[in-house]
Amino acid sequence: MTVDGRSWFAKIRSYRQTDLSTQAAVLLPVVTIAGLTVWTVLSGATSANSLSVSQSVSPPASMIAATEKMSPLDAVSPSAQDPAMPPQAIAPADQATAPAASPLEEASPLDGLKISSQSWRRGGLGSKALVTFTLRNNNDYAVKDIEIACAFNRRDGSHLTERTRLIPDTVNMKSRKTFARMHVGYVNINASQARCSLVAASRL
User: Fold this and answer.
1) CA 109, 115, 118: angle at the middle one, nearest 5?
2) Calculated CA dihedral for residues 147, 188, 186, 163, nearest 10 degrees
3) Coil, helix or strand at residue 190
4) CA proximity to 131, closest of 113, 146, 144, 111
5) Which member of 33, 55, 84, 121 has the lowest number of beta carbons within 10 Å of its beta carbon?
6) Each residue's pLDDT tens digit, 30-66
């Protein structure tokens, strides 16, 4: 009885061990495949979420290019801020602060004064320049303290020297006056040509 009982328990134990080994051999691949499937699904969902987040955060390439091309003045343009603002109200600051030209600004006396004719010769053993010229005053007023500048050149036209002279005389309005052999200064012996021009004048 005792021997039969032990053999019966041994059969049952060996049967259980064999059954557990079979079940483990069958279940192990199933569990492995299920784990790989779950891992693949989870990793795909994570990649999709990260891609959607990056796309929602990063702006489109066209918007970035438009922002780079936009100048700082375009970004703060008053017309862009308020389309209803009239163009006259958006005048530049330099135009708004520029002083207006005075319509009563007086013209210079030189505008109506000119030398109508001129000539020159040497005097004082050839060292003095004597100039003869006629002043014509077209202004509506008399002028005085007329300053002239005479440039002397060599025969080839190259510049040699320049002399100035202040004429403490008056030329009446709408008239002309001739000044003969006026001494304007000493010049070099090589001076061959002379040309005088008006520098300044005062209103009487």
Assistant:
1) 155
2) 10
3) coil
4) 146
5) 84
6) 778 888 787 787 776 555 555 554 555 555 565 555 5
- For residue 51, give the amino acid letter: L
- How many CB atoms are closer than 10 A to CB 161? 16
Local structure of residue 4 (DSSP, 8 states): H
Q: Are strands 175-186 and 128-137 parallel, antiparallel or unpaired?
A: antiparallel
Whole-model pTM above 0.70?
A: no
CA 135/CA 119 separation, integer angstroms = 13
Adjacency order of strands within the sheet including 113-123 = 113-123, 128-137, 175-186
DSSP string, 65-130: HHHHHS-HHHHT-HHHH-TTS-GGGG--HHHHHSPPPPTTPPPPGGGGEEEEEEEEEEETTTTEEE
Return the structure tokens found at 62: 């066209």
Alpha-carbon gap, residue 75 to 87, rounded angstroms: 17
Residue 104, pLDDT score: 47
Cβ pair 152, 191 in contact under 8 A? yes
Q: Is 38 left (phi over 0), alpha (psi -120 to 50) or beta?
A: alpha
The residue type of 87 is P
Write out the two tokens for 1.
Answer: 């009885």
